[in-house]
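re the bet — no i am not wrong, look at it urself. input seq straight from the record:
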Amino acid sequence: MSRARTIFLGSGAFGVPTLHALIRHPSVELVGVVTAPARPVGRRQVLTPTPLATAVDLPVPILVPQRLRASEAIAEILELRPELAVLADYGQLVPAPILELPHGALNLHPSLLPRHRGATPIPATILAGDASTGVTLIRMDAGLDTGPILVQQRRRLTGTETAPELESDLAIRGATLLEQSLDGYLTGELQPHPQPEEGATLTRPLRREDGRMDARRPAVELERQVRAYQPWPGTWLETTAGRLGVLAAEVEALDLGGEPGRLLGDGRSLAITTGAGRLRLVRVRPEGGKEMDPLAFLNGRPAFLREARLIPAG
């Protein structure tokens, strides 16, 4: 079997292990990498290339089109004469000429499709409190993560994973799954099967305002929110003393009532009452400050519990 001329499309860190898997795969000749342009990052808006652009020193062209569906971008890719496209965490819809390559286009998606299609499957998995998740390899069609499934791998969740931890684990699992499946796909031994429509869900891109915590929601949901929205958009409480970032939290008690939105503490610990139970804040970051535990925070702001109030969301 001749090596398949392959292009890889990816931008986020999830795709880095997949890129490495393609570089070393004996059935693949990597002829190009497509990634998003550098973008301003952080408070100082430093122009930063994607994790894929800096992942490895590649002896192949790295293309950075603003719009993949633009005719000039498509022409530039087709000039490389690819036979197969592999996508992982790219972030743009793939145009028909790439879907119609001789071996088509494969997408590695970090969920058990059809659950959590779309842009943010990992945060959605944590927010939903799913007992398990996994990675799915599909042959892409014109829809959004709707293509037929080639293979899946499932893993159990403990209910303590943060989004970066889960992304890192699924990235490695996905790259291994692709590496093990490519030969069967290229020879036709591994055939895709249609996704079931039952159980399909669709996620959307995250917005900055998603990170604001609403104390009217149950403590269980707020704890998931803290884990799901790392590192962006992050989670925070709006208080009369300024915004308080919450980087880690624990459900303290589900059977303790009280009006939602009260700040509680004894000078060493910090908690809030919620719509169901209390949420203990484990790591916080005051606006403009550094990450710290509640003891250090309250030592530096001894009047906080006495004077600050939560500002209701919405």
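see?? The chain has two domains: 4-202, 208-307. told u. also The longest strand covers residues 242-253. so pay up
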